[in-house]
Amino acid sequence: MTGMDESTTASVTLRRQWQQMPQAPETGLVSFRTYLDDYGTGIGGYILADKTGPTSFISLNGSYAYHIDFDRWNTQRLALGLSFSLAQYRLKGSELVLDEADDIAIFTNNVSRILPDAGLGATYYTDDFYVGISIPQAVSLNVRFDGDDGISSIRRIAHFYAMGGIKIITGAEDHIELEPSIWLKYAPHSPIHANLNFQLTYDNIIGMGIGYATDKTALGQVNVMIAERLRLGYAFSVQFSEWTNYLGGTHEIGVNYVIDSGGVYGW
User: Around 223, how many Cα atoms within 13 Å sit in the side-chain half-sphere?
Assistant: First the structure.
C-alpha cells in the first residue's frame, strides 16, 4: 500500500496492549513514506520497537511498491509491493518467571540475535474501493538463543492477510466520507481472524470509527486534524471474554504529519 495516497508522510505511533496484565506488550513505531510520480513507485521505511515481558525486538524496515496504471486517467491501479527488514531479538532469561526456581535446565541468559525477514503483497485500488493480499514475515525464521544453561527459541511464522474497503462520498457538498472495510488474517494452526470496521470522516478534519473482531474484540477510534497537515489519532479496544478483567483494554495513540499531499488526500 506504500504510495497509494501519493503523499509524503511521517508518523509516530505508541501502543500498549492489555494494560492490566503485568509486563504487557508495548510497541512504538516511527515511519516515513513517499510517492515518486515520475517512476510510479512508492517507497517507505519504519523503525519498530516492541517489548513483551522478558522478550523484545527492534527492527529496521523498508518497503517498495510499483503502481501499474490501467487507464490514462490513473483511476485504476495495481500496486505490487515488497518489504525487507532486519530485526534484533532479545531475551532476558533472568526475567523469566519459573515454576521451579531451581530447575537448571531453564534458560537464564540475557542474549540477542539479529535476523532478516521479508514480505510481499498486492493491492488493486480505484478512487472508490481497494482490495489486497499480503504475506508479511514470509521468511518465517526461528530465533534460537543458546546459552550456558540451556536453549530457548522464538518461532516466527508467516501470516496471510486479505483486505478490502469501499469509500462513499456523501453529504452536502460531498463533505462526508464513509468507509466500511474488512481485514482477514490467517496463521497456520490458528482460526481465521476477521476484523470489520466502519469509519466516518467529515471534511477531512475529524474522523470516527468503530469495529468488531471475531476474537470478541470491540474497537473504537477518533482522529482530528489539529493543525494544517498534522493529525492526531487515538484508538481503544477491549475484548469481551472470560479474560477481560485480567487483560484490560488496549490503547494506541498516533501523530501523522503530511509533508506533501501530492495534490490529493487519498486512503
Answer: 21
Is it the case that residue 265 has pLDDT exceeding 70? Answer: no
- The residue among 219, 220, 177 whose CA lies nearest residue 194 is 219
Smallest CA-to-CA distance from 68 within 78, 59, 54 is with 78
Which is it for strands 250-260 and 8-16: parallel, antiparallel or unpaired? antiparallel
Q: How many CA atoms lie within 13 A of 193 on its CB side?
A: 13
* Domains in the chain: ranges and CATH: 8-97+107-260 (2.40.160.40)
> Does the pLDDT value for residue 158 go beyond 90?
no
Residue 137 has pLDDT above 90, yes or no: no
| Run of H or E residues at 92 | strand 76-92
Q: Which of 213, 256, 261 is nearest to 238 (CA)?
A: 213
Which residues, at least 6 apart from 124, have a Cβ–Cβ distance to it below 8 Å?
76, 77, 78, 79, 130, 131, 132
Tell me the mean pLDDT in the region 78-107.
77
Q: What is the pLDDT of residue 28?
A: 97
Residues 224-253: what's their mean pLDDT?
91
